[in-house]
Design brief:
Blueprint lengths: L2 H11 L6 H9 L4 H16 L1 H27 L5 H4 L18 H17 L7 H23 L5 H37 L1
């Protein structure tokens, strides 16, 4: 761990306890059934709206890829979490001892944010609700990353790696989608001639 990483970790990890409910929500809130149901309803609504359908499909495919990549990184390049490595860490959630190489939480939320940005970019006129969806997911991703530091289970560098993994996963999924669209278009054109 680099000195800047530990220093930044301490600065965020020691923010006031009054922030704990918010950051604990962003860190472990997805484990609750109510939030899963709400996110499911939102996903269905976004799939039903033609303008957000592509972005939602990209998001639904990007976050599992981001999660898989972080799992591979954790098993192939294990790095200790502050909850194990740093005795002064304030741990506000379950103490994790598994490798913390890349934050899967940060990766997953950044994958969704990038997927919406990529999926909504082709729209000629991006209205305020669509810009709000994009901005909202980036805010969620950043707060999720900060939460993992605040609750004491990831160093800032691990969150940053997670953010990068999430962005890359969304770009990969979008690239595969474009390749498939191109292949389908070429096949349709060949069938017409």
């Amino acid at each position: 761990m680099l000195p800047w990483d530990q220093d930044l970790f301490v600065r965020i990890n020691t923010w006031p306890d009054s922030l704990a409910p918010m950051f604990e929500f962003f860190s472990v809130g997805i484990k609750g059934l109510a939030l899963k149901i709400i996110l499911g309803v939102v996903a269905v609504a976004l799939l039903a709206w033609p303008r957000t359908r592509l972005a939602t499909i990209l998001a639904l495919l990007s976050w599992p890829l981001a999660n898989l990549i972080t799992d591979i990184l954790k098993s192939s390049l294990p790095m200790l979490r502050p909850s194990v490595d740093f005795p002064e860490a304030i741990v506000r959630v379950e103490r994790l001892s598994s490798p913390g190489t890349a934050s899967a939480h940060a990766a997953n939320m950044m994958a969704v944010a990038f997927a919406f940005m990529i999926g909504l970019a082709p729209l000629r006129k991006t209205t305020w609700p669509l810009r709000g969806i994009i901005a909202g997911w980036f805010v969620v991703a950043i707060l999720t990353g900060l939460s993992r530091i605040y609750v004491g289970v990831h160093y800032p560098s691990q969150v940053l790696i997670g953010f990068i993994v999430g962005a890359v996963a969304a770009v990969i999924v979008a690239g595969i989608g474009r390749a498939i669209d191109g292949a389908i278009a070429r096949r349709r054109e060949a069938n017409r001639t």
